Amino acid sequence: MAEATTVDAHEAAHFGRLAGDWWDPAGASAMLHRLNPPRLAYLRARIDAHWGGDSTGFRPLAGRRALDVGCGAGLLAEPLARLGAAVTGIDAAPAVIAAARAHAEAGGLTIDYRAGGIEVVTGEAFDLVTSLEVVEHVADRTAFAAGLAGALAPGGLLVMSTPNRTPLSRLALIGLAEGTGRIPRGTHDWNKFLTPDELTALLAGAGLRVIDTQGLALSVGRGFALSESTALDYFLTAVRG
């Protein structure tokens, strides 16, 4: 099947096993819940900057299509829908998509969830494409970047995040987080992490131009927060050419 070009079956199975408590803020996906506030803050800032929005508005994505790639059970897709977007969420793990559909339905949200890789939206175009903490899990990152570029409508916005490949990320995400059970063991392969320069080059090869990069840091006092340092993790925003 075509989607095998980007979907890593082992990775999909790993995340599928987490589907049952994805929405539990104290469960196996607790780290993702803690990531959501800075994620949404960064996204809102980039959305407003790109489309000239008012930061006090409630529905800056009204009338726009959004695609969340590697959506999990909907931690980002649901807020995007509440911001006014017509949202499509895709994930390689069918069990996770089932959990996403159930949660959205319980909350009265209409989201088009689909199981599969980026290939399931071939031929479609979206104003906003998000893919947070996903590129490090795919089987073919070049094909994945091409798929993201292909899904981006003219004048659209791509927002990604991913861990940096540094000694800090190895210590924090694998040594400490996975080692102490804060993240399920086997979630990360440090060798698959991309530096900002590597991800920028990957997207350039797909015809995209990076217009913003910002770090995500973790501190004892503040938890996860936006930062000037990209040593642990970072966000990246890109547009066509």
Structural description of this entry:
- By secondary structure, the chain is an alpha/beta fold.
- The protein has one domain (2-240): Vaccinia Virus protein VP39 (Rossmann fold, 3-Layer(aba) Sandwich), CATH 3.40.50.150.
- The chain is 34% helix and 24% strand.
- It has seven helices and eight strands; from the N terminus they run ααβαβαββαβααβββ.
- Strands 3-2-1-4-5-8-6-7 form an eight-stranded mixed β-sheet.
- The radius of gyration is 17 Å and the shape is globular.
- The protein starts with 8 loop residues before the first helix and ends with a strand.
- The mean pLDDT is 91.
At the fold tier of CATH, the topology name is Rossmann fold
Based on Cα principal axes, name the global outline. globular
Estimated helix fraction: 25-40%
Q: State the total count of DSSP E strands.
A: 8
Which whole number gives the mean pLDDT? Answer: 91
Give the full name of the CATH homologous superfamily: Vaccinia Virus protein VP39
Largest sheet features: 8 strands, mixed
Tally of helical segments: 7
Describe the protein's topology.
Layout: H1 9-16, H2 30-51, E1 65-69, H3 77-82, E2 86-91, H4 94-106, E3 112-115, E4 126-132, H5 141-151, E5 152-163, H6 167-178, H7 196-205, E6 208-219, E7 223-227, E8 233-240
Parallel strand pairs: 1-2, 1-4, 2-3, 4-5
Antiparallel strand pairs: 5-8, 6-7, 6-8
